[in-house]
Amino acid sequence: MVAQSGGPTVAINASLAGVISGVTKSGQYDTVYGSINGILGILHDNIMNLSELVKKQPDALSTLTHTPAMYLGSCRFKLPDFLDDDSAYIYIFQQFEALNIKAFFYIGGNDSMDTVLKLSNYAKKIGSDIRIIGIPKTIDNDLMETDHTPGFGSAAKYIASSILEIAHDTFIYAVKSVTIVEIMGRDAGWLTAASALARNEYSTAPHLIYLPEVAFDKDAFLRDVKELLETTNNVIVAISEGIHDADGNYISASESSTDTFGHSQLSGAGKCLEYMIKENIHVKVRSVEVNVLQRCASHLSSKTDLDESFLLGEKAVACAEEGLTASMVTLKRTSNTPYQVSYGHARIESIANEAKSVPTEWISEAGNDIREPLLDYLRPLIQGEVPVTYKNGLPMYMNVSHLSNSKPLN
């Protein structure tokens, strides 16, 4: 059985396709089931037979690989500690037994790996031989034990392309202006750092980059902008949504709003900086919140990203066949030039509930830009273009009507 959880990406369905492909080729497994809306699908008896889907649609794997977001839907459901309440675990494993499930794959980010850890620990407690394996996914690129995460490369490509297009948009006016672009990233600035890939022989935008790994200083920010405006008309600033001051206070966050995993629901960091500029510098200024657009832009997907995501799905099945459990499949960079990776795995307890930050040595001393080693790390991940099939002028994706017709689960 396979499920998807957390936020959507361009590449998560490629990993799902990889799992289906791996099971199809398997000598140990004959059927792959999909749980709709993550772990909740098992709890609410909302399961589909993905093996039958592939039999009915010969091109399903190819179309699925190039379809954004989650074909199986998602959830942000936090399993309780089974020592406090094991009722959900009992039901989940009863469902596994009823369907003769021998391996469970969960595709997701940090919070999804928390679910993998809890299910693995419960399986060990009851002596279950079900293999439980995580498959990484997150545009935040903050999972431990893997060089990078599926979904990040495509999101990075979208961010860099958008920054370059914003630069073209602003450069046409011979007036002093500041454009602030707010990019996703609560605790890690990997995606915001990717904005630097937009720089080329005629454009140095973004001119300033602020990541959550470094405390944000309002006075230093205003000083940086003023200095740049002395030599250039248009200043473009890339910021992470999670930038915070030296005391750890987010520049903009809803004080009483958190998700089920206790994470602050952030909004308005770009708008906050826009107001700072208006009040202190008095030039034309606007803020752009990229928001969900950066997650599912399949028209700008990275071929490297999709290829690796598919192979990680197949790798997960191979690991389960070998008897591996309580683990997550990983990528290890073996060469930067030429770019090469190997596929492995790591124990889930070293991954769940941890976060990988941008190394401080890859951030400028002033905290307002990134250094060349980070660009060297980023460049290979956005390489390669993916052909998109169009119908009536629009991209053609998998039919996901089974999601829109589902009853609300949480």
From TrEMBL:
Pathway: Carbohydrate degradation; glycolysis; D-glyceraldehyde 3-phosphate and glycerone phosphate from D-glucose: step 3/4. Diphosphate binds at G7. Pfam families: PFK (PF00365). Signal peptide: none annotated. It comes from the Bacteria. The keyword Cytoplasm applies. Mg(2+) binds at N110. Its EC number is 2.7.1.90. Residues 2-298 form the Phosphofructokinase domain. Gene3D superfamilies: 3.40.50.450, Phosphofructokinase domain. It is an enzyme of class 2 (transferase). The active site is at D140. Keywords: Cytoplasm, Glycolysis, Kinase, Magnesium, Metal-binding, Transferase. Substrate binds at T138, I139, D140, M184, G185, R186, E241. Non-allosteric. The record marks K137 as: Important for catalytic activity. Transmembrane segments: none annotated. The record marks D111 as: Important for catalytic activity and substrate specificity. Catalyzes the phosphorylation of D-fructose 6-phosphate, the first committing step of glycolysis. Uses inorganic phosphate (PPi) as phosphoryl donor instead of ATP like common ATP-dependent phosphofructokinases (ATP-PFKs), which renders the reaction reversible, and can thus function both in glycolysis and gluconeogenesis. Consistently, PPi-PFK can replace the enzymes of both the forward (ATP-PFK) and reverse (fructose-bisphosphatase (FBPase)) reactions. PANTHER family: ATP-DEPENDENT 6-PHOSPHOFRUCTOKINASE 1. Homodimer. HAMAP family: Phosphofructokinase_II_B2. Belongs to the phosphofructokinase type A (PFKA) family. PPi-dependent PFK group II subfamily. Clade 'B2' sub-subfamily. This is Pyrophosphate--fructose 6-phosphate 1-phosphotransferase.
